[in-house]
Amino acid sequence: MSHAAVLVHDGRLPSHARDPDRMLQIDALTFNAWGRKFFDRASVTLPNPSKVALVGRNGVGKSTLFKLIKGELQPDGGDISIPKAARVAAVDQEHPATPVSLIETILEADTERATLMAELETADPERMGDIWMRLIEIDADAAPARAAEILNGLGFSTEDLDRPMAEFSGGWRMRVALAAALFAAPDLLLLDEPTNYLDLEGALWLEARLARYPHSALIISHDRELLNNSVDFTLHVAEGKLELYTGGYDSFEQQRAEKIRLQSATRAKQEAERAHLQSFVDRFKASAAKAAQAQSRVKRLAKLAPVETTIEAGVSPFILPSPPRPLAPPLLRLEHVEVGYGDDPAILRDLDLRLDVDDRIGLLGVNGAGKSTFAKLVAGALQARSGLMSRSSRMEVGWFHQHQIEALDPSMTALDIMREARPLDSDQSHRSRLAQFGIHFEKQSTVAEALSGGERARLLLNIVAMNAPHLLILDEPTNHLDIDSRRALLDALNDYQGAVILITHDRSLMELVADRLWLAADNKIVPFDGDMDDYARFVLDRARGGTSAPSQAAAKEKRRKRG
């Protein structure tokens, strides 16, 4: 399947024509690969239409299930079936860097419209009437407007529509692939981490779009808000099985917790009964008078089937030590500050901001508006061009940004990375810290390229906080973290006693950490008067054209974001 391909059943995908009310049916699916069992006679039926969150710990087989559904992998047993002639689309990779314009690329994703439009040029007069009738039925004239609306929601400007695909970087071409899949509106849409290449604004728009998607969708995501607000069901993958729950992620967690509670209560009751029966048998098995009763208890013991139990793996906490002594406020003061790169136009101008010792700042704004530039300025990696920037001379800053993960030396082990970060500490101390971070002994000598993205992110997040900084700057800290790890990060941030500047597309984390919001737009950063619900309404209204959008400030910053 290509970058955003739409497949109609053609023999590559299993099909059924038995029940149009079922979009996906999985029967006794078994799949083993790479020395492990992913699925063990797993079964589930998804209604049609339905939006379903596919959840489970990293590595349990969520993406593998997508490949099985698409026919890219073959099961060892069981069956996966979809309705005959169903159109299935998935976003697998970035769109190629072609000379075709952005808008034409999206329009081509509707293969029926594209085929009919091409056929118009050569069709005989009798056939042309049928073609025009079908084009009217599918509202073909409105297609460019629909495509532009989707692209706008995903962060593209009107000026971008006529640009060739070759001018966009990989991250933006991933957005194109997502836009193409949404525009094609397949019967079953498969989305694997669709918000990873989006900013918060794009994620908010996608959340609303999926909530009203008219067909079926199966979505892998670690974005709790998206999974709460966009789906009807939650499909949980664990221990080789598939289990369907009603509602979004919060509802799933409540139902699963209740299931585990009932299992524990049933198990405790059974264990008490087993102990009572065994005690009777042990006391009277040698007594002739009680022999029959003892034998009866033995039979009852044998009939006590073990209660199914759910194993909940623990999540290692994040270690974010608070600064030992608070500094006098403010930590940072900016007056009429301007910042940019080299001789290029300024990214941010006339910054007039104050950061206090206990501030929790959520930094909002579209990609390219200057959020990461501001983080570099505050972290000391970029100097102000003009204006006054005052900061405490004793302020310790911990700065995490997503490019640190990409910049890790792939040949260095986790232990090597710790040695480099704290060269004066002993290996015993390093190993103890790594274990606290959730990187246990067997992983400590593993090279970085063999660690998962989540393990690398966890390692670096903990390292930047090791010196108990007065200020933590976190620029997209959650990209490689699953939902449970994000919750662990939230708990650590809420316990941390220093100041925080947070840039994230995870709305839930932003809502629960930030107590003040700043908005980067139009070459400035200013306080945003409202909460995240207000900002979500602002973003969606702007996407509909009801509010003037903050510009993607400064061509230099935009080029940096797009490659």
From TrEMBL:
InterPro entries: AAA+_ATPase, ABC_tran_Xtn, ABC_transporter-like_ATP-bd, ABC_transporter-like_CS, ABCF, P-loop_NTPase. Keywords: ATP-binding, Nucleotide-binding, Repeat. The keyword Lyase does not apply. It holds the Pfam family ABC_tran. Signal peptide: none annotated. One of its GO terms (molecular function) is ATP binding. Residues 24-264, 332-547 form the ABC transporter domain. It comes from the Bacteria. PROSITE patterns: ABC_TRANSPORTER_1, ABC_TRANSPORTER_2. Residues 544-563 are annotated as: Disordered. The keyword Cytoplasm does not apply. This is ABC transporter ATP-binding protein. It comes from Tanticharoenia sakaeratensis NBRC 103193.
